[in-house]
Amino acid sequence: MEVLRIAGQQRLEGETSLGGAKNAVLPIMAACLLIDGEIILHNVPALTDVLGMRRILELFHCSVSTDSDTLVISTKGICPGELPDELMKSMRASNLIWGPCLGRFGKSDIPLPGGCPIGVRPMDIHIKGMKALGAMVEEHHGHIISDGRHMRGTEIYLDFPSVGATENLVMAAVKTPGVTVFRNVAKEPEVVDLCCFLKEAGAKINGIGTDTLRVEGVKSLHSLEYTVIPDRIVAGTILLAAAMTRGDVTITNVIPEHLEALLAKMAEAGITVEREHSSLRVHHVGAIGPVDLKTLPYPGFPTDIQPQFMTVLSVAQGTSVICESIFENRYQHCDELRRMGADIKVDGRTAIIQGSDHLDGAMVDATDLRGGAALLMAGMAAHGETLLGNICHIDRGYCHIEKLFCHLGADIRRVLV
Length: 417
Known about the structure:
Elements: E1 2-7, E2 13-17, H1 22-31, E3 38-42, H2 48-59, E4 63-67, E5 70-74, H3 85-88, H4 98-105, E6 107-111, H5 124-133, E7 136-140, E8 143-147, E9 155-157, H6 163-173, E10 179-183, H7 189-200, E11 204-206, E12 212-216, E13 224-227, H8 232-244, E14 248-252, H9 260-268, E15 273-275, E16 279-283, E17 292-294, H10 306-313, E18 319-323, H11 333-339, E19 343-347, E20 350-354, E21 363-365, H12 369-381, E22 385-389, H13 392-395, H14 401-406, E23 412-416
Parallel strand pairs: 2-14, 3-13, 9-10, 17-18, 21-22
Antiparallel strand pairs: 1-22, 1-23, 3-5, 4-5, 6-8, 7-8, 10-12, 11-12, 14-16, 15-16, 18-20, 19-20
Helix pairs in contact: 1-2, 1-7, 4-6, 5-6, 6-7, 8-10, 8-12, 10-12
């Protein structure tokens, strides 16, 4: 079994450049099923989830090749493929091929997806939207079977601004005859990136970046070359790790506007971040103050940075309160942080963090993707050595995370135990 051996009391210092966003590249790869021709994607991170989506595309007889951080996808021989349950259950984003399948083939048989066990992420908004478009949908033995040959444009209101549902429904609508208007859609940067990608491929989408999208169906989408946006969640993780270790780190190839909520809370905690057009620098040496926060859909505070911020607050001077409004089971990492000396009490969706003088190294396990990153941060700041197991979760969203932080001065090794 692979674990990360993390030496404590490591100060991060230096400069690093961001790679592409996991949560942007996965729906974009799924959207390639809608396109006739060749797609060249730049700034693609080398993640296990990206490899999983590549395998899905290859099951549809797409040709996929890689050159550094560039992915070349050809749909010349595309045809419906049989999707193994094991592969689909290995990642949540596998459900994003539902919309493209309906748009390309008029029908689909999709095993229910998997992913991190951070809470219930039902498909009800997806299903309700597909039915509103005119698709015939039924669930059978863990599969969603649908017929979209009679779909037509309509008006759809999402009960919640779900990122996945917004992406799936937009991809289903871009080749659906007529005009579809979606209201109360997600506005996350990754949703915007998908819409921009589709638009460059010939889709007719208006209202990108707002809570209302107007999609006019087209008959076909064409080849294109596209660069994926940088990963704001990785950026947030680096910024918080640098602050926690009293470091001095500059991140380039970043879009600061994507991190406004995080930067505001860091400032509230007394952590100063200098910003330029496409770079951020955190240089923190003083105490960290307590903060209260609530996770919300974008542009609110992102749930994917909540565990990392909690780790920082565990060594703040004072008491902080976090309310997790997105996923009801996103506090699993708290038990592991307590092993390291953190004082955290959880009551339902609320966590109360009493800052302590320091954390101690321990043997802990990553409970999910972002919780794993939070524990790695704790290990870098702790006294003594930390062994972090179950790191397959971390590899889903961070490209060689040990190399990323070692480049900035950390002492982290991936070892077999």
